[in-house]
């Protein structure tokens, strides 16, 4: 039986936010929103101040509160993933309210290909806006996964959105895009049921922690190193 999980090594994480950017691009998340987030914990007093950067996302819980309250069955479990079908979602917001981690949000903009610099040129009076370039060339300008054409990553505003562990990539035998793009190699993905996998070895060799264990949801996102 396959059960996917992610291990984040906080000792390697440098707080660059590349995971958040990679997630936004690969999953074509609407303007102003992210499925990958982070917490910054600051300790000490000036001038002796330190902080810890903790990446967060949907925890893909074994006991997901979001799935229990969805009235239309838009959230399901599969191989350790808690996946959401935006095509089925009716935007009631119950999953948003139920998630104790706050990792599900209603989309405020269509998750379509956004034309960057729609209104403002990069250099006033010298360069064209994104909209002008798109109009002249017939090619959309901006960010987004232009190879994606399915409802798995392209969804409308007012539906709920969250990390699906890049299910569309995992289905092809690939890793989530944030794993590929982490420059420090702080993210490890794999099948915890496979004792030979890197993720299983890390969990066996370390004392992993999870976000808010008191919630009792049994997350499949683990942290090692300083937490």
Account of the protein in words:
The chain has 227 residues and is α+β, with helices and mostly antiparallel strands. Helix content is 19%, strand content 22%. The strands form five sheets. Strands 10-1-11 form a three-stranded mixed β-sheet. It has a two-stranded antiparallel ribbon with strand order 2-3. A two-stranded antiparallel sheet has the order 4-5. The longest helix has 9 residues, at 18-26.
Please compute the radius of gyration using only Cα atoms.
19 Å
Shape: globular
Please provide the count of β strands.
Answer: 11
Number of helices, where a helix is a run of at least 4 consecutive DSSP H or I residues: 7
Largest sheet: 3 strands, mixed
Question: How would you classify the helix and strand content by structural class?
Answer: alpha+beta
Main-sheet strand order equals 10-1-11
What percent strand?
A: 15-25%
Low-confidence stretches: 113-117
Helix content: 10-25%
Element-by-element helix/strand order: EHEEHEEHEEHEEHHEHE
Query: How widely separated are the two ends?
Result: 30 Å
Report the mean per-residue pLDDT as an integer. 84
